[in-house]
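Escalated from tier 1: tetrahydrodeoxyuridine holo job.
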Amino acid sequence: MKEIQVTATVQLFDDIDELPAQAKQLMLQAIEARKKAYAPYSKFRVGAALSLDNGEIITGNNQENAAYPSGLCAERVAIYYAGAQYPDAKVLSIAITAASSTTQVNEPISSCGSCRQSIAEYEQKQKSPIAIYFMGELGKVAKVNSLKDLLPLGFDNSFL
Ligand code: THU
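Tier 2 regenerated the structure:
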């Protein structure tokens, strides 16, 4: 038996103002998208903004449903829309923000497992990393340079 170390690198910014200008703009668009989320059940609103290599910015937010599992997270709403509209474009980066009307979300909120798996598919497809910035409503912003830092040892089509 031998043990291997799996490491992830995360950069932490004190707040949105510490981000590089383009990343801050992307996060501001994620915040605007978050405000339009449809989250009547969880009251937990999430916004995502994607920048594409063709210059487009795609936004999405969580869309809930009375049949709970039928709803979809913000990240997947946005990335599937991008995949549907611009199948040849590469996703450069994604900004994600979450806020709740029942608690103060002031820690970075990263994506759920299904969203990580979905983003991983696009990294694999485009053969280049996607930078991900994530935050709550206020406070620190975390950044990973690749989805691989959020989903080490993931499953992809190389196993099929
Ligand atoms: N949610 C997202 O939109 N993205 C995530 O990565 C985590 C969870 C949404 C799903 C649901 O509408 C609400 O947040 C509470 O789970």
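Residues 12-46+53-72+95-136 form a domain with the Cytidine Deaminase; domain 2 fold (CATH 3.40.140.10).
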